[in-house]
Design brief:
about 425 residues, 7-stranded mixed sheet, single chain, about 15% strand, Aldehyde Dehydrogenase, Chain A, domain 2, Aldehyde Dehydrogenase, Chain A, domain 1
């Protein structure tokens, strides 16, 4: 069947399943979704074990990295977190059953255009519309065509109707006819690069709901008040998980203090990344990525040879790299366990260095700045950061965190005021 016809057929099935779903009490649906979350957070669940067993071959991550990434990322995903979102953004779940002065509903169906290869964003993106009793038509990510289907299967095991309320389609993004069919949805959630989102946004009409999650990056900031070795072990985990490929992976580290602090931070982190490679080996990288890492290493060594205070620490096979920079100036990174350590004098200079990154800032790991935390956290939030966490917790966002600083359910909901 052509991809465009598959999209149309999936939408027709969802419309039928959605009409049944909306006849069920909202509290009943929320309770079942909570059971699904509890199952995924359980490391012994068959769902987790099967997905963990299949992801490495499909995504290129090592098996150890996948197991650790799921354990950290899903550790605190509970039904209570979904309840907290509903209470925070909707109030009484009865409002979803048309009681009270405002009628709150989801759309007839919601399209989710997925990206990347990390399972947690996919699981969250598909569960949230269901909390509003809106069935979901998902376009799987090119690097991960497993997670969405695994979630649908877990839903079906809890409740067959919920399982029928998630449909997954696969087609190349260059298929314009299938893409056009997909973008006919009344509500579209899209993840991807800024360029991809801009291209899709141009095709969305004014009457359609658009929720976009574009390019984000995260950083870490520390001072000499923190033990370098203990901090480095935690930071190495944040870098190693998912091979630094997610928006919550640190892309740079800012060592606040004198020049020696940056030296010691880089040395401790190199030691910790070497140990992380033993525990959670880096996965496959493309030829282009390997080339980019080599080029960035060579470029840093050229600057070092020119007399600049730049140092390169790394594995012989490029499995990990630490570049001790000589300024706070931002430099792009090829990622895949390639990290730059920037020296910086104080938090004021740090705020100035991060300002150009503000529109794309996601999480900030903050350590050793307790005395300055309230004011500095406010400055980071004003720049655009949506999570402030200690090192070692960057890859463990709670289910109810404000993704990209946005509410989670409200952008997916329709409101009707009853007077």
């Amino acid at each position: 069947m052509p991809a465009s016809e598959a999209v149309a057929a999936a939408r027709a099935r969802l419309e039928k399943a959605g009409s049944e779903l909306r006849r069920r009490p909202a509290t009943e649906i929320l309770a079942m979704l909570g059971r699904v979350l509890e199952g995924w957070s359980n490391p012994d669940s068959a769902w987790r074990r099967e997905l963990a067993g299949r992801l490495p071959a499909h995504t290129g991550f090592s098996a150890a990295t996948v197991h650790k990434g799921l354990a950290v990322g899903l550790e605190h995903w509970r039904g209570s977190a979904l309840e907290a979102i509903v209470k925070r953004e909707i109030g009484d779940p009865g409002r979803l059953d048309a009681t009270g002065p405002a009628v709150i509903t989801g759309f007839d169906h919601t399209v989710c255009i997925l990206a990347g290869s990390i399972p947690m964003p996919t699981i969250q993106a598909l569960l949230l519309p269901l909390a509003l009793r809106s069935p979901v038509l998902a376009k799987s990510a090119s690097r991960d065509d497993l997670t969405a289907r695994a979630l649908a299967q877990s839903l079906a095991e809890i409740d067959p109707l919920l399982g029928r309320c998630v449909e997954v389609v696969d087609f190349d993004s260059s298929n314009e006819e299938a893409s056009a069919r997909l973008l006919e949805s009344p509500c579209i959630v899209a993840m991807g690069s800024d360029a991809t989102l801009a291209r899709l946004r141009e095709k969305v009409r004014p009457h359609q709901r658009w929720v976009g999650y574009g390019h984000r990056l995260s950083v870490a900031i520390k001072t000499a008040r923190v033990s370098n070795d203990a901090w480095a072990e935690r930071m190495a985990l944040d870098i190693a998980l998912w091979d630094q490929s997610g928006c919550l992976s640190p892309a740079a580290i800012y060592a606040v203090g004198d020049s020696r602090e940056a030296d010691e931070t880089a040395a401790s982190l190199a030691k910790a990344l070497e140990a992380a490679e033993t525990n959670w080996p880096r996965g496959r990288v493309t030829t282009a990525t390997a080339t980019a890492i080599r080029i960035e290493r060579d470029e840093a060594r050229v600057r070092q040879a020119a007399g600049r205070d730049v140092h390169v620490l790394g594995a012989d096979d490029s499995a990990w790299t630490v570049v001790r920079e000589d300024s706070a100036n931002w430099r792009a990174s090829p990622l895949h366990r390639f990290i730059r350590v920037h020296p910086i004098a104080n938090t004021k200079d740090c705020t100035a260095a991060l300002r150009p990154l503000g529109p794309h800032l996601a999480a900030v790991a903050l350590d050793g700045l307790e005395d300055e935390a309230p004011g500095f956290v406010q400055e980071l939030a004003a720049l655009g950061a949506s999570r402030i966490v200690p090192a070692g917790r960057m890859q463990a966002p709670p289910f109810d965190w404000h993704h990209d600083g946005q509410p989670l359910l409200l952008p997916l909901a329709r409101f009707c005021d009853r007077e």
